[in-house]
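Work Package 3 (structural annotation) set out to generate three-dimensional models for the target panel prioritized at the project kickoff. During this period the team completed the workflow that converts sequence records into discrete structure tokens, so that structures can be stored uniformly alongside our sequence database. As a representative example, we reproduce one entry of 282 residues exactly as it appears in the project archive.
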Amino acid sequence: MDRNTNKLYEADAGAAVVSAPADPPPRPEERLEKAVRAAEQALIEFEIAVETFRVEVENFSRLHHQKLGPMYTRLDELDAQIAEARAARTGDAEDLRLAREARARVMPMPGVEELFHGWIDSEGLSPEGASMLNDQPVRPPQRVRPSADARRLYRDLVRKAHPDLAQGEAERTRRDAFIARVNHAYTLGDEEALRALTAEWEAGPASEEQPPSRSEELYARLEWLAERKEMLTLVAKRLEDGAIGSMLRVAQDDPDGLLDQIAEQLLAEVAGRERELAALLE
């Protein structure tokens, strides 16, 4: 190939490049569909994070009541006894009123066994609760904390079966009912149930391919996703600002250690109240 032939080839190639038609710009519907898909996935991940935190708060609250509930009850009882002892000494009308109010706060309640998971019954401290206050061996409270595998199964199921991925009302209803079962199993930390639900979903009907959507429908979808995200943000804030959520934020790495610290503080308060009561009864 001579020099002139090379120049002609290069000129033709350049002309071909210049004259080649450019790719058509994406249709507005395509851009909206991409935006909707991205918003859907972001919302699902956010819902997973919020639900995971909700379960952590619920489980920590349960452990908090199981481990520390008897101590709070003991402090209330000591406060009532101190107020009654002080009123008996002074006979003052205000002291008598305070004593009645303190006693009313610790009156037996029906169903209290369920509230404190067996640590306290309607007659007062259970044997296990009394053993704990006296530093004696006691059966540890039941822990309902999902394992790493349970968390992984839960996240995978929600990503696959989330109702926000449904394209029809019937499919959304089916997914809503299924996700409710998934959430219940995760709350209980039931790994076997989550595995069974995974198999059930995989054996179910395949998700239909998303049909083309009109621009108005896509805009409405984006608006709904934004409203849902705003609602979940409020839920997350309420969880974080609550007493249990605040404690979890303080002790993210060692929530059990935080419970132990609070237990030590409460035991010290119980000892102080008992000394104060003994002094009043002398």
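Strands lie at 120-121, 124-125.
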